[in-house]
């Protein structure tokens, strides 16, 4: 009769208890691994969220715009700290399109100008202009406010300094200042009015078999509708409107520039043409050449510049920059993809 082997500590006896224990161990290890994995992902997402909001935090506690090295250098040179009892030159930036929703809206410019005039240490004001123009209504508001503030604070001089361009509505605004400075290569003028109503699609609709259905009350309610045939009386009416606004523009410029404007010898000044700074000084559109720092130092005699331009709050600026960065990245991505699929010629 064969003896039954005695179990030792190394032997594995497959009992019901050991099988259940093995299952429990496996479940415990699986749960532990799942917790570790969840903890790693949690740490990863926390780091990701922190990096996402890091630029906003930097903007919140700094006075500079993120990622704009040229602005940093300019701020360091032109916008030094102002002593509490020292005189300074106030700076208001007129930048970009002049419209209600833009940085160069009448509300923002007027707010900036009022703050600059009201400051007790302001010796003179520079409007640094770099704009292709925009709304004549917005420009008119700012022009009127400059004249009102000059009358209220006669001891404070106001100068405009054109950088790259000051055309159309931009010139409408700066015509109200004491003197206008620019660079020889700056573009100045464009004293005219334009209305763009797109294109006419009448013939295209006929060829495509598209019928225009337009219901209106009032004979001229569909005035200049691009899907209807153009009417001579509509064109005459819009030209009359543009001429009226143009005359307002001309009158404003003449009042602002006075005898300095040589329009009698050069009637093309009001034709809508644009001129270089070198040509503009001969026409009386500007007074001299110079930069913002030159005017502050040599003309106003207050070298230190303090910026009174109304800026968006940090959150708006961060959101705008983030959106621009994402749009730029997407555009670059699509551009790269398009290049990859462009067939070789």
Structural write-up:
The chain has 345 residues and is an alpha/beta fold. Among the domains are: 37 residues; 179 residues, 2-enoyl-CoA Hydratase, Chain A, domain 1 (Alpha-Beta Complex), CATH 3.90.226.10. Helices cover 48% and strands 13% of the residues. The chain contains 10 helices and 8 strands. Strands 1, 2, 3, 4, 5, 6, 7 and 8 form an 8-stranded mixed sheet that branches. The protein is flat, with a radius of gyration of 34 Å. The C terminus is likely disordered.
Estimate the strand proportion: 5-15%
CATH superfamily membership of the domain at 69-192 and 266-320: 2-enoyl-CoA Hydratase, Chain A, domain 1
Rg on CA atoms, Å: 34 Å
Order of helices and strands: HHEHEHEHEEHHEHEHEH
Number of DSSP strands?
8
Average pLDDT rating: 80
- Distance between the terminal alpha carbons, to the nearest Å? 93 Å
- Which residues sit in consecutive blocks of at least 5 with pLDDT less than 50? 63-85, 337-345
Number of helices: 10
Q: Which CATH class of the domain at 69-192 and 266-320 applies here? A: Alpha Beta
- CATH topology assignment of the domain at 69-192 and 266-320: 2-enoyl-CoA Hydratase, Chain A, domain 1
Structural class: alpha/beta
Q: What's the overall geometry? A: flat
């Amino acid at each position: 009769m064969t003896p039954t082997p005695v179990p030792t500590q190394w032997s594995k006896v497959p009992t019901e208890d050991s099988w259940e224990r093995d299952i429990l161990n496996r479940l415990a290890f699986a749960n532990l691994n799942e917790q570790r994995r969840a903890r790693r992902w949690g740490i990863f997402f926390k780091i990701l969220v922190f990096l996402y909001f890091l630029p906003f935090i930097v903007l919140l506690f700094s006075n500079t715009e993120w990622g704009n090295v040229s602005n940093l250098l300019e701020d360091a040179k032109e916008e030094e700290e102002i002593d509490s009892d020292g005189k300074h030159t106030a700076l208001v930036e007129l930048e970009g399109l002049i419209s209600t929703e833009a940085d160069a809206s009448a509300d923002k410019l007027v707010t900036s100008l009022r703050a600059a005039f009201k400051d007790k240490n302001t010796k003179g004001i520079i409007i640094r202009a770099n704009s292709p123009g925009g709304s004549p209504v917005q420009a008119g508001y700012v022009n009127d406010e400059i004249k009102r503030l000059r009358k209220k604070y006669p001891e404070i001089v106001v100068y405009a300094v054109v950088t790259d361009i000051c055309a159309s509505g931009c010139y409408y605004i700066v015509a109200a200042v004491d003197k206008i400075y620019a660079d020889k290569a700056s573009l100045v003028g464009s004293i005219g009015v334009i209305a763009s109503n797109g294109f006419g699609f009448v013939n295209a609709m006929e060829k495509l078999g598209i019928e225009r259905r337009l219901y209106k009350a009032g004979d001229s309610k569909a005035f200049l509708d691009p899907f209807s045939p153009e009417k001579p009386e509509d064109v005459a009416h819009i030209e009359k409107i543009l001429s009226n606004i143009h005359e307002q523009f001309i009158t404003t410029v003449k009042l602002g520039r006075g005898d300095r404007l040589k329009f009698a010898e050069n009637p093309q000044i009001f034709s809508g043409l644009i001129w270089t700074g070198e040509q503009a000084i001969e026409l009386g559109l500007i007074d001299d050449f110079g930069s913002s720092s030159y005017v502050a130092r040599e003309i106003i005699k207050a070298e230190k510049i303090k910026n009174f331009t109304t800026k968006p709050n940090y959150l708006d600026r961060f959101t705008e920059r983030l959106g621009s960065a994402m749009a730029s990245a997407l555009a670059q991505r699509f551009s790269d993809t398009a290049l990859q699929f462009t067939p070789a010629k």
